[in-house]
Please model this.
Amino acid sequence: MKNLLLLSVFAAQCALAQELPSVQLSAGMHLIRAEVAADFATRAQGLMHRKSLVPNSGMLFIFDAAEIHCMWMKNTLIPLSVAFVDEKGAIINIEDMQPQTEDSHCAARPARYALEMSRGWFAARGIKPGSRIGGIPGIK
Model:
């Protein structure tokens, strides 16, 4: 029984370790390669335990519904910024997050998506609330 439990835990960790699908997004003239976290397990894992991000890469969280979603940085080793995005692809608000904290960073109004990038990525490119993120699956 104990071996079965350990095997199940190992299988779950291997599934999360597999590379997630990715999409190419755009923010103005800037291109982004974003891994897609579109189910509960991948959203819960997020960018935890990673030591770095490739430049201009991040993670797109796709939520089941537009709601006030919140993010935290438990077990996340790198500083990130998160842009909460509405159903039309417009950024609602951007929050900077400290690594390895459980502070909540929430959308200012209902969001359907969240895009995590290296901390300061949005600010360094002049991307602010109201800017649009192109290429999000399901948005024309």
User: Anything to note?
Assistant: Residues 2-17 form the longest helix (16 residues). The beta strands are 22-27, 30-37, 57-67, 70-71, 80-85, 91-97, 105-106, 111-118, 133-134.
